[in-house]
């Protein structure tokens, strides 16, 4: 994994690195590897994850087909006191 540091801005580079690691699932994997997980617990967890994924896919498919309402959208706040606008 590679992150480009622009203008010696380490804070921005760290943010980008953390976002990439989060997307790749590295944090979850590191947390899981901290302690030993019995094979039976691992199978149970993986089955639960598979069920969760399949339910999420079915829910998204139903939303696409119009059987379920889509996710609620947050209203955009109107900032009446913006400087520089008249």
From TrEMBL:
<feature type="region of interest" description="Disordered">
    <location>
        <begin position="28"/>
        <end position="86"/>
    </location>
</feature>
<dbReference type="InterPro" id="IPR038380">
    <property type="entry name" value="Ribosomal_bS21_sf"/>
</dbReference>
<keyword id="KW-0687">Ribonucleoprotein</keyword>
<feature type="compositionally biased region" description="Basic and acidic residues">
    <location>
        <begin position="28"/>
        <end position="52"/>
    </location>
</feature>
<keyword id="KW-0689">Ribosomal protein</keyword>
<dbReference type="InterPro" id="IPR001911">
    <property type="entry name" value="Ribosomal_bS21"/>
</dbReference>
<comment type="similarity">
    <text>Belongs to the bacterial ribosomal protein bS21 family.</text>
</comment>
<dbReference type="GO" id="GO:1990904">
    <property type="term" value="C:ribonucleoprotein complex"/>
</dbReference>
<dbReference type="GO" id="GO:0003735">
    <property type="term" value="F:structural constituent of ribosome"/>
</dbReference>
<protein>
    <recommendedName>
        <fullName>Small ribosomal subunit protein bS21</fullName>
    </recommendedName>
</protein>
<dbReference type="GO" id="GO:0005840">
    <property type="term" value="C:ribosome"/>
</dbReference>
<dbReference type="GO" id="GO:0006412">
    <property type="term" value="P:translation"/>
</dbReference>
<dbReference type="Pfam" id="PF01165">
    <property type="entry name" value="Ribosomal_S21"/>
</dbReference>
């Amino acid at each position: 994994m590679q992150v480009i540091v622009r203008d010696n801005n380490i804070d921005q580079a760290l943010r980008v690195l953390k976002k990439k690691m989060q997307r790749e699932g590295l944090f979850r994997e590191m947390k899981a590897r901290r302690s030993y997980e019995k094979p039976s617990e691992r199978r149970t967890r993986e089955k639960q994850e598979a069920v969760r994924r399949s339910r999420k896919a079915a829910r998204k498919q139903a939303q696409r087909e119009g059987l379920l309402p889509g996710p609620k959208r947050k209203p955009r706040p109107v900032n009446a006191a913006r400087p520089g606008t008249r």
